[in-house]
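Weekly structure sync, notes
Attendees: PL (lead), two postdocs, one rotation student
Agenda item 3: pending single-chain targets
PL asked that the sequence for the first pending target be pasted directly into the notes so everyone works from the same version. It is reproduced below exactly as submitted, 348 residues in total.
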Amino acid sequence: MLNNEQIVEMNENVMNCFPEGKIVLLDGRVVDCYPRADLAFGESAGQPFDSKPAKTDKEMEADKVRFIKNAFFFLAHKERILTDSRMFLCPVPIQSGMSISGTSGFKDPTLGVYLQWWERCEGAMRTDKKGRRSLLYKLSGSSLSGHNICGEVYEDGSTKNVELRPFWDYGKSFIHINNTYKSAKQKYQAYSLQHVLDILDHEEEGDNSFAHTINEQMQSCEISELNELLHDLITRNKELEHRNEELEKALNDERVLHFYDGYKDLERRVFAEKEQLLQQKRDLKMALRRGDCSNQDYQRQVQAITRRIKEVERELAEYKESEILKAFPEHPKLFWAIEGHAQKLRGK
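Predicted structure, written out during the meeting:
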């Protein structure tokens, strides 16, 4: 089994197989990209995507807060953001990571990465029992122990720590999506979070009602999760039905053997007693010939032996009928079918 670092390395080896100047989204859409001015042509002033001095810690923290507070706003404008590579590649200063592999695979996430991850990763868009909706924005934990402390943000911008299970499923999906665009992040222009917000605010022309868009996306996610739950329940039900069938078969086999073994034991005893009784009849006949008993005594004793033989034969027949009904009250079986199955179970 591959460890975290091997999975990250594998993803990095196969990622970014895009045409030059393009990125391909997970749904297959192709989006045009714009080479960074500082890489292709040197510095070009006046563009929001040009190379700038590294942001200060204070600026990074401001962007972090900006992203968290506007997470649902960005989600509401997902389709618009996914049509513009500069919005898609907008850096998000949230640093997730693993206790063993560190931040490998989690570095430099973008707005588009988060939007695709929220849509693709089951459980990244969440609705609790009270109907409160939230989005995961930070992953931190161990893929080995599963212990984790992650972060979710609610529609009102408040945040909360949350423990995810199974944690590695969330981390693996984020790493895959994030690494897919690693090269594009380095080569192509990207807006800042503030610039994305400014564009979206301007395009809305004062209409800030996007609750219906959020509802559609969250409900779509909830329906997908319910469908997944239904699928799991159907699968589990089939497994339980299969186990129940196996248990019923095992119980049926046990009842077959219990009945048949009891029958065969009685049959052996009946056979042994009949042999003794028949031998007594033969002995009486010899005694009659020798004159050791009268004909009257002979007849009386033979009749008693014959009655006993019929009694033991009837006892065996009655056992067969009554015990079959006791062993299989719902679906009585024919003796020959029980005998054949029992012999099969015994390997005879």
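Discussion points:
- Strands lie at 22-24, 30-32, 97-98, 125-127, 133-138, 140-141, 150-154, 159-162.
- The first strand starts at residue 22 and ends at 24.
Action: rotation student to compare against the earlier draft before next sync.
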